[in-house]
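ugh ok so i messed up the first submission bc i forgot one of the chains. this is the corrected input, ALL of the components this time, i swear. 561 residues overall. if the numbers dont match what u have on ur side tell me asap before i send this to the collaborators (the ones from the other lab, u know who)
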Amino acid sequence: MATLVVAEHNNESLNDATSKTVSAAQALGGDIDILVAGQGASAAAEAAGKIDGVRAVINVEHELLAKQMPEAMEATIIALMDGYDTVMAADTTTHKAYMPRVAAKLDTQQISSVTGIEGDVFERPIYAGNALAYVKSNDAKKVVTVRTTAFPAAGEGGSASSESKSVEIGETGSAFVSEELTKSDRPELTGAKIVISGGRGMGSGENFALIDTIADKLGAAGGASRAAVDAGYVPNDYQVGQTGKAVAPELYIAVGISGAIQHLAGMKDSKVIAAINKDEEAPIFQVADYGLVADLFKALPELEAELTKVGY
Amino acid sequence: MKVLVPVKRVLDYNVKARVKPDQTGVDLSNVKMSMNPFDEIAVEEAVRMQEAGTASETIAVSVGPAKAQETIRTALAMGMDRGIHITTDEDLEPLAVAKILKAVVDSEGAELVLMGKQAIDNDYGATGGMFAALMDWPIGQYANTIEAGEGAIEVKREIDGGLQTVTLTLPAVVTTDLRLNEPRYASLPNIMKAKRKPIDAKTPEDLGVDTAPRLTTVKVTEPKTREAGVKVESAAELVDKLKNEAGVI
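and heres the new structure output, hopefully the right one now
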């Protein structure tokens, strides 16, 4: 039995999500190889080889893989699948975009956003996390995406073998044009130890500066509810929840967020939740370890001052 | 161009899902059902393309029980031209739905299939990608903006960390994300007009599609619930608790 884990990387460096996907693959058992599909991705491939418990790193280089376009990823993985029973990747936007293509070509039902694996049973949240489904696959090959917040990072210190393979990629019908990436010195949302998110209660995009100041102090990532994204206060990649990102930091601070079920779906696995909201009936307080009923425009500057007092 | 939009009838966005006591699934009896919100965005985009003159015909397709016809009527009331209802009482997996859509598009022909990025019930997020692969069409997932051109379409995509722009040669599949548009409410005259728009009904068997499930559901359970904690009186007390009690800052 063998699993092919697809690396999350930007050619230059390997993302943490890869190591977490490896630990999900370990829960399934069998040999684990990592595919690093990219262009000029040797640094990422080298980093992948250091993850504990990996048999081999397969580096496929192609200009159409520079941005891991879905059609090119499909062709690459299908070409490699002979030796594997399972292909697994993180449920980030990169992998979610092509994994269903791979599944359809293998005539397999994809198992999406898995949060637990026991034997051959996969646990996955459905209905915005209001229910957990436990499913078994009857297909010969399995295509699995994993929610990386549910799995620990695999250890370091492995010494996987490495090989380069070339893959024929035909006409794909798609072309990369450009990218606008948010530049930020703050940690990435899904990997941050502390996340502070604002909701519709923030009132405007400008007011998110109050969140940013505290995020900078704490070295936290900034997030938002769907309502705040819908209102145009912040970009979509801030979104925490069913249709955005799932996070599970040590500390999650929800500010001006009522706590709709779709938002809770993305953050209720956080270790500690603190909430600031002026409505004491807000559902967020039902999941918060610490609740402060207050006007956020008064509470946030106070919070900032208190953090300064304790050395932040 | 001819634009096809698959629409799914799901538990309404504002209704909390309740697990059945026998753990076989979620209880859908006597609850409000609506069109999947991401599909509404796809319908809106198709109607706007028609209004702008880039779409020549718009077709809404739903795979589901008899009542899925209401979901198709909603799409027609928003402005789409006609509907196709593939009737089934089974809760089909994305692979089966993708195969049904392929059969529909093979016979109807379409240059663009616009669909929701995920359905908010089963949260697979797989039907669009599967359908695109079965057709060997390119896909633009998580669209923020769509610009239709001659024989190609430019899609600005929501990705982790920002936005990415790609061009796709038509025919293609585009999946919708939140910020693509704000769906309209159907007006009463349009709701009345929609009642006279045609809906073809077929079954998966008519289309020759095998819809046997590939996954076996062992059980469906309620997630662990969190206990509400304590209320603090001030920002100072909050910082004290986070630092000295929880030890997270």
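quick check: Chain B touches chain A through 84 residues (CB under 8 Å). that seems consistent at least. Residues 37-51 of chain B form the longest helix (15 residues).
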